[in-house]
Amino acid sequence: MSIESLVGTWLLDGSISVSSDIAQEPGGVHDDRIKSGLRGSGEELVDSVAPASGLTLTIEENGFFTEEKEGEPEVKWFDTDGVLTPQVVPFSGVVKTHRSGVFLQADDIPSWAAPTNRYSVILRYDDGDTTISDQIYRVDDKLVRTVNVVTDEAYLDRTVIVYSRL
User: If one looks up domain 4-165 in CATH, what number appears?
Assistant: First the structure.
């Protein structure tokens, strides 16, 4: 997918978050299950989002993106330091394409958590304990953003954020 269909200003419609354990294999973690968790689109959750507002995502033709918030949007949020925060903390960065999808990478990631393409996705954050992928794609006229967070190679948090074009 190219970013042309994603370019524009998008307003938050709603979000939903789910958490689960990543099944452990006897003797260790199975990388395929982590990869699957980080690549999951969450598209099956789109129709279940709870209404929310107050967040704008703008994607430019040159591949850069910015976020702005108004008020306190109700979205489960992991900041650029990989920390679950009680409120949305907007950030900016670049949109990157990969054979497995289109991903957001934030600016100002600490060097020790520099994103990699480990697990065959472009990661937003990877400090060894917390790994975050931030994928965007279109479903009809909506922009869907799926933030997958794997913690300790054992727990998956998936937040699906749905936007409408401004």
Answer: 2.40.128
